[in-house]
Amino acid sequence: MLYEKILTIIQNNKKKIAIRTQNDCYTYDDLNKLIEIVKLAILNQNIDSFIPIGILLPNGINFIAALFAVLSLDFTVVLLGYSFKPSELLYHIKSGGIQIVFSCSDKSECLNTIEGKKLSGVFDADVDLEYWVFDVETSENMYEKKGICQLTSGVGGKSKASLRTQQAILTEINGTIEVLKLNEDIRVLTLTPIHHSYGLVVGTLVPLLLGGEVLFLREFNPILASETIMEHNVNTLVAVPFMYKLLNESKLSDEIDFSQLKYCLSAGAPLHINVYMAFKDRFKKKIIQDYGSTETGLICINFDYEYKYESVGQAITTTEIGIFIDAVRQTETNVVGEVWVRSKGTALRYIYPSKINLESFYNDWYNTYDLGKLDDELYLYITGKKSNIINIDGLKADPVEIENVLLELDQISEAAITFQRTQENRNILKAYIVPSKNAVLTEEEILKHCRIRLSDYKLPRIINFVNELPKTATGKILRGSLQ
Which of 222, 372, 387, 432 could form a disulfide with 339, with the two C-beta atoms 3.0–4.6 Å apart? Predict the structure, then answer.
């Protein structure tokens, strides 16, 4: 379905630029040729149709070509986080039964450490693609419906693998195009990782399926991003709040001009009004706040952030929002409850952990695990989280996962993770450590251990050694007392 859509675009735009990176540009015909190369690699290996195929690649043409190649052959594709540590990759490869992973030379050492086997001769030397095989089990009914599987942090320390059909993704694409009134003239600079839903759909698939152009940087740099916007006449910016903040604070040339930007989209974390106003004052452009999730894609857009800056906006036309209390949908406005979403763009279910499917998906509704309310104009306000998940620049960190890693050290008796809000309005992780009796332990040793087991954004930035943790009568840690 998505492949057929891109194939039509390719046939009508062969010589048009589809993708730009810092050093290269690629036409739609170039993209098509690379898709065919990856398709041939898959077909030559005689893979069973129920086997999911993982993609572990940075933003760029190789990622996009691999995605469309896998989908064209009706396999399920699993988008792995490019910044994952080896232990995180191994967890998802085993849990998801991922026997095949398309990756690149930069990840060879990482994949070797988790006992992957690279097949030689699959791709020519001038293509930085590698074909890796893993000896894991995959049940035939694990992915009874095909689609795109994306990974997200979950409740209780469990990572979740959310499966959306191609039709669900297409629903989000069409809804985004409709609400933003986009056309083939779109030229997007996508600064967020495209293995995440926001970067994948809004930042990549939407422009490509319109016959537009998408631009990527190797890593975020505010000066380079600004120069790219001007040099290539970018009209749509896909970023997260801390990137806008860094743009505000960067020492840019007086000649920087963002007048060609039509949309400055922000998602993944709350947008602070100070960041919004500073960007507007400096660049004369308004940031549009988006709200969504891996499981549903885009849910809301707030086009007029100054009007209701505490709101994440109104639902897009393809999505319905309900506020529920004790499984009962509320008919009154301005009532705080659980935020549930209904859309044809919603995921089918979690592949793993499957035990939370019943509480997350019910009668076509999905539980976002956010708490919120709808006002009289049906603007949605997020008032809190149902769980203790901590938002770090749009990425989700679960305290339990980090605490369990800390407790692997014998020198640590107890540990608790909270967060601290910085002057820049960003969350940073804060660890409270109760050392074991007579233990000698330094911050350096703790961080060395954590770096092996956790992604960088999950590392504690502040470590406090304490004699005891505040607890309830039943022994539960009072996290609020530690804030």
Answer: 372
